[in-house]
Request: fold
Amino acid sequence: MKNLCKYLILFYFTTVTNILYADSISQQRDDYKQIKIALKNYNKNLPVINKLLHKLKDYSLYPYLQYDILMEKIKNEKNLTLMQKPVINFIKEHSDLKVSHLLSYYFTELLVTKHRWKDLMYFSPKAPKTAKCVCDWYYAKWSIEKKPIHFEDLIKNLLNSNLVSKKNLLNNKKNSNNCDKLFLIPHKYIATPPSVIIEYIRLAMKKNNHTLINYLIKLLPSDYKNTANTVLKIKNNPLFITDFVKTAKSTPFNLQLINYSIVNLSPKHADLAIEKIPIILSHYKMENSDIQSLKEIVANNMMDREFTSKQKIWRDSVIINSKSVSLIEKRIRLSLKQNNIKDLKIFIEHLPYNMQAKEEWQYWKSYVLLVLNNNKIESDKILYNLMKKNSFYSLIAAQKLGISYQFKQSKTIEPDPSISKIKKIIRINELMYWNKYCFAKFEWNKLLTNKSNRFQTMLASYANKQQWWHLSVETTIQAKIWNNLKERFPLAWNELYKKYTKGKNITKNYAMAISRQESGWDPYVKSANNAVGLMQIKNIAFTDTMQICHIKQSLTMQKLFNPENNIWVGTNYLEHIFKLVGKNRVLASAAYNAGLSKINQWRRVTAGKLDVVAFIESIPFKETRQYVKNVLLYNAYYNYLTGKPENILTPLEWNHSY
Reply:
């Protein structure tokens, strides 16, 4: 009886506590929502915002509200100097949150845009890491101090950034965030010695970064005019190198000039590059290793077009003498594309032993043993060893042998109840409630850092149970728990995929495999080329799908962050591609990633000479090659997890000539 009373009392208090907590969190969410609405008219609603904010000091997203309010204050404050301390204090207090990085970046950009150089120096005593602001920071430093400045850090930043290679901001007069203003600084204030600038020009040539070369040349003083002119001549006309080497001294800079000329000559004129190398060597002495490197530049550009027999012999002799794994592997793929098994054998055996152990080359070693040596025993032995792993080639090996692949699945570790009480978990829960996936992922990764593998495994299970599917996937990657299949391949938005693949030629599991590869189940992800959502739909794919499927509903790209809209459009687009390529997932997956025109181009080259695995491995784009392998593998995993285990490739895909 005593125990029963204790149980009833405990049950009562637990129930009451849960009810009170539910009421509390419900009220906090309501107040949070009211503040977000009020922020749309910050000045008018400031009293309401302050009143509500006071009530939310215990709410887990309180720092995020502080950030939102601080951003509005900055936008409404004319005197930015007054905002420096609040911004600095917030960044220090919440350095572990993504919003502090966003705030720092935004405020730096704002000070640059407003030309508030003193404020910029106070706020950012060290050069910012973002390439977009770094030039302005150096200019600000000089304009205030009027002292000689060192450009080394600036140049390193520009060398390692995409700023000067993908967007020619250095010459864009309309853009205030560029490096042009640095040319206004008199040369007497440039403390970086010309010899250092010359070294960075050499590194820029090594990266084949034309725009950065142009910029660095302008930093050279007038007595380096001859050097500057030589670089520009070779940049504009690589053939000038044969005149240059007649009088050139042997230096690392001049050697790089030679390499730079051949890098820019060989893609379109490999035959000319081959002719020029002996001329260069007759005037300019090089080490054997440097000669080999020069030849490899040309050989690397001799894989995609037809050449004479003599030129092919030259190319292959260079590769046979090479220690470059990437070059040899490129040549192996050319052998596959040409269905030349003898060359395939030669170049696989030329790889370093540890690289021959890679799964793709083990598979093709098995193929060579069977086709050239008729050695089925050794060939099958390699395939059986591949099956012990859990990769694309493991399942391909099983299909080749005609046996079922045995999927390896670890037992899920049930999460400890204490996990839900962790402060970061509580905050992540609220971020997920408000669909702030990016912030949630940032905090989740912080939580995973330096934790035991067991704890990380429990977190993966916890995330999956909470339907935080992208965090479940992220955890399996971070923790390297490849056999935790339920967490690694969650059945995310399963009913929606079932709904929108019903009646289509594509299967639900194939569409899910595409999504798992594209977004890792993050519905709010946006790529660098503006593909959005679960199935990473690009603008052109969206427009085409709306027309092809006669969809007249008022959808916009922004609405594709909604999972249902994304799955609806994405599955229609995938179905369209799938039918265009003969209901073949290999071709459809490659087209989904690289575009239909590329697939058609590759198929014209291979002209039905290849089997399916050779076609996949010979895809020239590394990203697309791996993409196709992953999608097929993920499809197989989803088939297994949903009780429909099949071969990794259908009979149509396996027997098709590519």
In short: DSSP finds 37 helices and no strands in the chain. The CA atoms of residues 384 and 397 lie 7 Å apart. The radius of gyration is 30 Å. The mean pLDDT is 91.
